[in-house]
Structures are given as structure tokens and as C-alpha cells.
Amino acid sequence: MKNINLLSLVAVSTLVLMSGCGSSGGSNKSSNIDFDANAYSKSILTQEVKDALAYMGNEERLAYDVYMNLYDHHIANGIEIKQLLNISQNAETKHIDIVQQLVRKYQLAEDELSDVSAPVADNTVTQSDMPRGVYDIAKIQELYDELYDKGVDSKKDALEVGCMVEVVDVTDLDEYIQLAQTSEAIDVVDAFNILRDGSYNHYWAFNEGLKNIGVSEGCCSLGDTYCHPEYPQTEKGNGRGNR
Asked: Are 48 and 179 in contact (CB under 8 A)?
């Protein structure tokens, strides 16, 4: 997902709350955020860290869109993929909101960013303005279409898309955490660590889902790029995708 001009983060929280509420148990956990951007002193953000905030907010939105749209497609055909629903609504919503807190805290504007669209801190955009899976930037639309087109083919393909998305997230976050550490932006470091911990958990959820349907190698069946046995694992319950 590198070198892609990304959609603005305008009112993503509004989009998420209106697009679908609740987990498989009927409750939306996105409001239970263990992060408060305003509890930290303001950092002096480098250009690279500003761009990283805009980038990761949009990357989390793309993950949410792909997972929810694939879930809706498969459930309409009588196939429930709980990982997609739980991770999108219990975790990706939370991740988007965490980045949105930082966007609002630093009031990032379009002329402060390079290679990405501005994540304007504004609540005027609604779901109809930002429908899931529809983007005004060609490259991110192409990426979404590629992931969605793969994921609709089968439950296996949908779970593999999850592996792919989470590996990309971890790779990007590894880079951006280092950038934030170098500039001593502690609030950004802590926020990105939460996102990365979540991506580890999601990776193992999709890995477990693949094994449960007979893909013995899990995410590793996709090849070396997506095979990461070194990722930290939480205790039993990865398949819930709640973090």
C-alpha cells in the first residue's frame, strides 16, 4: 500500500458509526478506546510523521471497508465469516478513531501533507459522502477492487485477504513507529503500537480461521511475504478479533 495517494480522513468516525454498529453479540466496542491523545503533551511533528498519520488513518479505513463488504457478500450467500465482522467492528473502528484523535489534536491541513489527501478534522461528511469501498483516488480504488475481487471467491480467499491486509499494516507500522520514536512523538508512538498490536492479533485470527477450514499452513500458504511466525500471539481467543 506504499506510494498511494490516499482518501481524506474526513469524519471517518461518523462513517464508521453509521456504516454498521455492533459485533456478533450486538454491541459496538469502538467507543471503548484505551487511548486519549489529549492526555499527552503536544509533540513537534516532522513532515514524515504527519504523512504517516494521514496514511495510517486511511489504511485502517480501507481495512474496515474490505472486511465489512466481504462479510456482507458472504453472509448474503449463507456463509458467515466471523473474523471479518468482529475485526472490522470491534477493532478497525477503534483504530480509525485513535488516528482521528491525533488528526484533530494536531489539526492537520492539506497543505501540510505530501503524497496523501488531507485528513481534515471535520464532522460534516456522512455515510452517503463516503460509502464503503468507493474512493475518489484511482490507485486506492484499484487496491480495494483487487482485494475485494479476491475475497468474494470463497471463504478461504476472504480469510487470505485478511492475512494480506494485516501484514501490510504491520510492515507500515514498523516503519512509522521508528519515525515517531526518532522525532520523540510519544503520543503517535503509543497510538501506532496499539494499532500494531491489533494487527498481530488479527493476523492470528485469520491464520486460525484458515486452519479451521483445512488450510494447514494458515497465512503461510500465501508464501513467504505473508508467513510471519515471529508475530507475537495473545492467549487463546485470537479468532474473536476483539483487539
From this structure: yes
